[in-house]
Amino acid sequence: MANPMPTDVKEYVAAERDPAREPETRITGLMVQYYHVCRRELWFMSRDIDIDRETTNIQRGTHVDETSYRDSRKSFQIDGRIQLDLLDSGAVMEVKVSSALEKPARIQLLFYLWYLREIHDVEKDGVLAYPTERTREPVELNPETTAQVEETIEGILDTVAADTPPELEKKAYCDSCLYQDICWM
Questions:
Q1: Burial, 10: exposed, middle or buried (Cβ in 10 Å; 0-12, 13-18, 19+)?
Q2: Lowest-pLDDT range, 67-76, 84-93, 122-131, 168-177?
Q3: What is the pTM of this model?
Q4: Which residues lie across from 135 on neighbouring strands?
């Protein structure tokens, strides 16, 4: 039987630390990214209304992720929630095709670092990499970024718990969104 959905970060941490956990909402890195790109997209995803993963943009991102730095990183899945890559140095790496949506990518990586620290008592630094742009940036948790992650978690819990999707909000990237047919019907 699923546990009741946590309503705040403190309840979320307690639920995640419970060894017999079967949470109603499993916050993933993709949910964190969607929260900062489009909360409506997050709401659809939380209802198992999924996009076509065979599109060119999705395949390009998967290819870049799978082929970049493959000799210096190893992939791990933790608790069925997060898929992360560890560099030989021990840093957690997040690979993205482009820095066009830098904030969602950064918060996604910060969520991984936060999850490791808060749920598993493991401290790591992160690296955000854009191989097609040949750039890498260090990312680390501090009080300010921790607060951003925790605000994001609370926002995700609120969005997912809502009975209806958030209001439509036209954004620059709506025309390329794979959910546009659902949103703008």
A1: exposed
A2: 67-76
A3: 0.84
A4: 130
Sheet of 73-78, strands arranged across: 73-78, 82-87, 92-95, 126-130, 135-139
Distance separating alpha carbons of residues 122 and 135, to the nearest angstrom: 26
Count of helices and strands (H, E) across the chain: 7, 5
130 within 8 A of 158, measured Cβ to Cβ? no
Residue in this structure with the two tokens 């060894």, named with its chain if needed: 19
Q: What is the pLDDT of residue 70?
A: 64
* Residue 86 backbone dihedrals phi, psi, to 5 degrees: -105, 130
Q: Which of 96, 90, 99 is nearest to 72 (CA)?
A: 90
pLDDT tens-digit series, residues 65-98: 555 556 656 888 888 888 888 888 889 988 887 7
